[in-house]
Amino acid sequence: MQLEEYVTFSLRRTVALRRPLTRVRWHLGVKPQQPAPSRHEWYALVMLDPYAPTAVPRTFVLPRGHVAAPAWIGRMNWLTDPNAPLGKGNAGMDQARVGIETGQDYEDCRYLLGTPADNIPVMLPPSYRKLAADPRVGLPDGHLWKQKLPEW
Q1: Confidence class of residue 145 from pLDDT cuts 50, 70 and 90?
Q2: 3-state secondary structure of 1
Q3: Which among 151, 145, 137, 117 is positioned nearest to 43, based on CA atoms?
Q4: What is the distance between the alpha carbons of residues 24 and 126, in angstroms, rounded to a whole number?
Q5: CB-facing half-sphere around the CA of 148: CA atoms within 13 A
Q6: For the residues 91-100, what does the mean pLDDT come to?
Q7: Which of 52, 87, 129, 131 is 20 to 30 A from 139 in CA distance terms?
Q8: Among candidates 78, 85, 74, 59, which has minimal Cα distance to 28?
Q9: pTM of the model
Q10: What is the pLDDT confidence band of residue 128, given thresholds at 50, 70 and 90?
């Protein structure tokens, strides 16, 4: 039996705690912003509720490229915001984070895991597409969408 395509699958997870009166954000660092080494790179963003430790965690399943774009976009938008107070936008891309608004439409999408990531529709907030097209923000070098920005 021959395999037409050898599929390697990689799932990385990162966990955030839900805290009252604060936004849920996942610290990702630099690696998720690099080009995916395969079409099967995924992130599971897991949200635990410290006030209900036995509750099922909320899980947001995104292709790596769908995490890389908002991590970069959010960070670059903050770093280059002309209205930001001076001296506040000085941390590097290793401090990139994504918020719950980024992955909301990817919640419980484990059924997508067998699909090549580049076949998954983009379900990010529309505001991220506008920022990705903005030269002030854009996308990281090597990101697949830099050649042709998909519609969403």
Answers
A1: very high
A2: coil
A3: 117
A4: 19
A5: 3
A6: 80
A7: 87
A8: 74
A9: 0.81
A10: very high
